[in-house]
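#lab-general

N.A. 3:47 PM
ok so I finally got the sequence cleaned up, no stray characters, all 240 residues accounted for. can someone with queue access submit it? mine expired

B.Y. 3:52 PM
send it over

N.A. 3:53 PM
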Amino acid sequence: MFRRLARVDELEMRVGLICERIEPMPDDEAVCFLDEAFGRASTGDADAQLVFLAVGWALFDPRLAPRRRSLGETARNAELHHVADFVAPLIEEERPEDKRRIPDFGRGRPLTLGERKSLARTSDRSLIQRVVRDPHPDVIRILLGNPSLTEEDVVRVCAARPNDPEVLQTVYRHRRWVVRYRPRNAILRNPDTPLDTALLLAPLLRKPELREAATSSELAPVVRLSCKAILESRDGGASP
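B.Y. 4:20 PM
back already:
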């Protein structure tokens, strides 16, 4: 099944097939499927990682999102805490204090949101370099679809600190960029990334980046522990 899912080219099609698979399952069976998907991806298997990326998207899909709390409870009752942590984290996240500023576009005044959205569609590289610093998720959502945007630009969006969790979630939910390794790594390494998103990305990292994340004082303890457990599983230690 995992090999068949990995052969599906389009991420959205993979997500749809996973939703169809999980929707009729009782919670305990669905949790077992999620555990299996996580475990296979954690080994570094490329096909399994493609599937797990789609699993992460499926958990935000309207067909499965309403079940996340009950799936999380079922996972915790089964002592599959690593599954519960990415399905329905218990830790209440605080929104960071908003210290971000609207970029200076050289107009002598702050631009309106509508003006900034318009600039997000520009092909002018000098303007794009400013738009990537915009703090508003709606501006970034438009920018991510700009054909003139580069991977390096997206990494800069994800690496910005402080950052809006919704901006980071917007990059994670964008099919053009989430399939690329460097943006995924930058999202996980940002301390403002929502816990569930960071934990869904952890099994997709390579060992050097996992080691860095496992010892990063910036990241939440649950993210560091997840990265450490995944490393141990790849080195033949305890499974995550």
